[in-house]
Amino acid sequence: MTAAGVPVRPGLFTGGDAPRLLGSRCRSCRRHCFPRAGTCPYCAGSETEPVELSGTGALWAWTAVTTAPPGYRGDVPYGLGVVELPEGVRVVTRLTEADPGALHEGQAMTLVTVPLHHDEEGRAVLAYAFAPRGRAVGPGRGAGPT
Amino acid sequence: MSREVEVAGVGIHPFGRFEDRTITDMGVAAVRTALDEAGVGPGGFQAAFCGTAYGGVASGHKVLTRLGMTGMPIVDVEAGCASGSAALMLAAGAIRGGAHDTVLVFGIEKMPKGMIRSSFFEPWQEEAGLSATPAYFALRAQRLMRTSGVTKEHLAAVVVKNRRHGVTNPDAMFRAEVEAAAVLGSRVVAEPLHLWMLCSPNEGAAAVVLRAAGTGGGGGPRVRLRSAVVRSHLPGSVLSESTPLSGLVEDDAPAATTLAATAAYEEAGVGPGELDVVECQDTDAARELLSYEELGLCAPGGAAALVDEGATTLGGRLPVNPSGGLLSKGEPLGASALGQIVELVHQLRGDAPNQVEGARLALAHTVGRGANAGVVVLSR
After folding, report:
1. In sequence order, which residues have a C-beta less than 8 Å from that of residue B266 and are 6 or more positions away?
2. So what's the pLDDT on residue B71?
3. What is the pTM of this model?
4. What is the model's pLDDT at position A145?
5. Contact A64 B146 (CB under 8 A)
6. A89 vs B246: CB contact, 8 Å cut-off?
7. What is the mean pLDDT of residues A17-39?
8. For burial by CB atoms within 10 Å, which of A89, B133, B144, B193 has the most?
9. What is the ipTM for the molecules in this complex?
10. With bands split at pLDDT 50, 70 and 90, how would you rate the model's confidence at A55?
11. Which residues have a Cβ under 8 Å from the Cβ of B235 and sit 6 or more positions away?
């Protein structure tokens, strides 16, 4: 499931019911990176191919932000963490769970999109986030497939 | 042949909040003190490097214009939290290579209160809540706790230690002791980090005059600059101070601090076991403990034991942050690295407020966004 709205920045993730992060794979060293990049940040290779990264992964590190950082207009607290994807990538991401005590290392996580705030035209501005798999996160927030 | 470099003079403007003073005012105060100590007047130095991250265009020029000391190259240096280290590295290199005999290095900063707003982040990252700098510190702290014996109590112990050290530092912002229970009772900024475990961005200035050994007069103990190294990160670690949006599961690359420390030890011809006193980056309490590992002060996983033994407190076998650290002083980005040098030069001269008896070999460490890690080794 995914929330309706416009992405906070085009080119980061796909929409639809099962969103995916848009990354790249280096044709030379075969390593993946996110966001998408024309050059490989690991081997300086200049040929990369676009890939859709896995929508599920394992939680590796997590916390919650309790004070709004500069330039942020959404709600606090919100979860922030790192999720490991099967491609061998660790992604920095928002988490739908803002209680660090409710999460554990290795927990199965699913990519969703979440509304940050509304723009001048009243549209929801969306970011990518990972949700504990199988856990509903409330109406309008989007929850991963169980 | 490469020449030896020595510290001819140091000066500091206290770190804190000074509504009635500009960043230039603070720089002038620190530079004057350092030049007076060195016995250097107009025309007495051939280059100046000014560390600042938020100062803006020609920050260094504005300080030296006020002093009527211009004409030489004046270069502002931005390397995040390691801006002062980078300025020192450039100055030392210019002296070693013979380009100059005497170089002025200073760092200045005047930062707004609260969470740092950094132009490092793209607007969309701010909008998405990904620019919460303390949260990245928190993720690093959590990983340290999960891979070693470090607990929240150890984090509190670091704060208690550094705040106790800071009581006697006239240039520190916070000069009151705190108890562990109060640290753990302060509000959670980003689990596991509580407010008092984080240093405060603030204001201040510090200055160091370097010269080729043997080119100046004056008595007193000579302090030699043995190495001044800055390194950036290698790709791979998702929690590196380069603050990437992704990293690798196989992140076996050494940290920027480890790269800088390894090079600094080699250049100085010393090892971490020989150090008498250390000033290290305690942006947050966990960062100090991580630095113990990355600087080689202990084996990986050994930071908690150093705290338990009291090894890094005053009177321990390797006091760390006798100045009170950034947790007591606050962190004016461009000035903080040179503030460490001011403390260590006094330690090596034997006249520091929290004197480590017989200190002969000292190390200063800074690390921050970039990534930039600076390691400086000084000796008497």
Report:
1. none
2. 98
3. 0.95
4. 38
5. no
6. yes
7. 97
8. B193
9. 0.95
10. very high
11. A41, A42, B242, B244, B247, B248, B253
